[in-house]
Specification:
Alpha-Beta Plaits, binds copper (II) ion
Length: 75
C-alpha cells in the first residue's frame, strides 16, 4: 500500500488530554495508519493511505473541538 505523510497545524490544544483527543479523532479516520501529535509544535503528523483526503481529517479535528489546517502533504 502506498502511504503519504500529512502534517496538520492544530489550534486549541492546551494539555495532554487535548493531545489524546486529537490523536483519537485522527486515528478514527479510515485509512489513517499512525498519528503523532505534538503539543509544543501544535502539529499532528500522520501516516495515511494515499487515498486519504485532507477534508475528513480536518473535519475530525474540528468535531473534537480543535482547529486544524493543512501544513504539508507529500502528494
Ligand atoms: Cu487539554
Amino acid at each position: 500500500m502506498t502511504t503519504q505523510t500529512i502534517t496538520l497545524k492544530i489550534g486549541g490544544m492546551e494539555c495532554g488530554g487535548c493531545v489524546k483527543s486529537v490523536q483519537n479523532a485522527l486515528s478514527n479516520v479510515p485509512g489513517v495508519l499512525k498519528v503523532e501529535v505534538s503539543l509544543d509544535k501544535a502539529t499532528a503528523t500522520l501516516q495515511a493511505a494515499e487515498t486519504v483526503r485532507m477534508e475528513p481529517l480536518i473535519e475530525a479535528v474540528t468535531e473534537a473541538g480543535f482547529d486544524a489546517e493543512p501544513l504539508a502533504g507529500d502528494n
